């Protein structure tokens, strides 16, 4: 199995944190940029950018340490890593190259995705989507219904007979319904048109609150429906809907971008039935 690269927190690094004094910065120091060189090892620069990236990967307990102490310990480790890397004169193992390729691919893809999101999720886009959302629900009716789901029309009629005999709908639903809402007395919560399968919706639209339907058949089985309440939908405020809208814009933008890229790309790939898929867990292959 390939040897792991030097970890972020070597014994030297941790030990250094234990003995280094807290360094005061009483004198003004010039501001740093990501390109500011903080060390040079045999001509190889270590920059503040390298330090920032290393710091971002530290556990929270280390990031709470005084910055001067942490700076020196981190820089000590990066200098040591640079010296060891420079001393390596063998052929770079394939697994190292592949790891770097994976890391680079993932980071660049993340940046590309972020640019797509930034372009798609603007205040104008949010406002436009909110306006369309509000227009789509203003005046729309919402329904609250319960149902008893059984596997035959006969069982549905037996449930209705119990209801007509005075038994509570929720009790019959808990005892007879095979649907996931049974423990909740069959209550399905609030929904609008288009959210339920057609036969179920058609029955609800013909009902009045408090009434119970005749048996209704759908692909899920036979339903006995009780319409509990009807109300007119109220649009949320922009602030209330913002999170949902941003998520939708982000998801749609990424999906569209990936679809466009895929359609215009030349891609060949191996399918699972064309290769030994157990190989993905065999790290010994990296040493070949």
Automatic annotation (TrEMBL):
Class of this enzyme: isomerase
Entry keyword set: Isomerase, Rotamase, Signal
Residues of the PpiC domain: 140-229
Membrane-spanning ranges: none
Record bears the keyword Cytoplasm: no
SUPFAM superfamilies on file: FKBP-like (SSF54534), Triger factor/SurA peptide-binding domain-like (SSF109998)
Reaction equations catalysed: [protein]-peptidylproline (omega=180) = [protein]-peptidylproline (omega=0)
E.C. number(s) listed in UniProt: 5.2.1.8
GO MF annotation, one: peptidyl-prolyl cis-trans isomerase activity
Cited InterPro entries: PPIase_dom_sf, PPIase_PpiC, PPIase_PpiC_CS, PrsA_foldase, Trigger_fact/SurA_dom_sf
Keyword Isomerase: yes
Signal peptide range in chain numbering: 1-24
Alphabetized Gene3D superfamilies for the sequence: 3.10.50.40
Similarity comment: Belongs to the PpiC/parvulin rotamase family.
Name of protein: Parvulin-like PPIase
């Amino acid at each position: 199995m390939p040897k792991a690269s030097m970890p972020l927190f070597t014994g030297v690094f941790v030990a250094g944190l234990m003995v280094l004094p807290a360094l005061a910065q009483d004198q003004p120091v010039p501001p740093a940029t990501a390109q500011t060189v903080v060390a040079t090892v045999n001509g190889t620069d270590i920059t503040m950018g390298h330090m920032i990236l290393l710091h971002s990967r530290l556990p929270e307990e280390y990031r709470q340490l005084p910055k001067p102490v942490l700076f020196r310990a981190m820089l000590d480790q990066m200098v040591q890593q640079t010296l060891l890397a420079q001393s390596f004169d063998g052929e770079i193992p394939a697994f190292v190259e592949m790891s770097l390729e994976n890391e680079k691919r993932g980071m660049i893809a993340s940046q590309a995705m972020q640019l797509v999101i930034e372009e798609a999720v603007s205040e104008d886009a949010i406002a436009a989507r909110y306006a369309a959302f509000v227009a789509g629900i203003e005046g729309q009716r919402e329904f609250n219904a319960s149902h008893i789901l059984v596997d035959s029309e006969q069982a549905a009629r037996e449930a209705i007979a119990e209801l007509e005999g005075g038994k509570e709908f929720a009790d019959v639903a808990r005892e007879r319904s095979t649907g996931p809402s049974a423990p909740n007395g069959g209550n399905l919560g609030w929904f609008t048109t288009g959210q339920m399968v057609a036969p179920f919706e058609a029955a609800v639209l013909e009902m009045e609150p408090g009434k119970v339907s005749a048996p209704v058949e759908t692909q899920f089985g036979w339903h006995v429906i009780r319409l509990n309440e009807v109300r007119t939908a109220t649009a949320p405020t922009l602030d209330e809907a913002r999170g949902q809208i941003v998520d939708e814009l982000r998801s749609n933008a990424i999906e569209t971008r990936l679809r466009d890229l895929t359609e215009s790309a030349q891609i060949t790939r191996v399918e699972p039935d064309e290769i030994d898929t157990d190989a993905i867990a065999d790290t010994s292959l990296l040493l070949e």
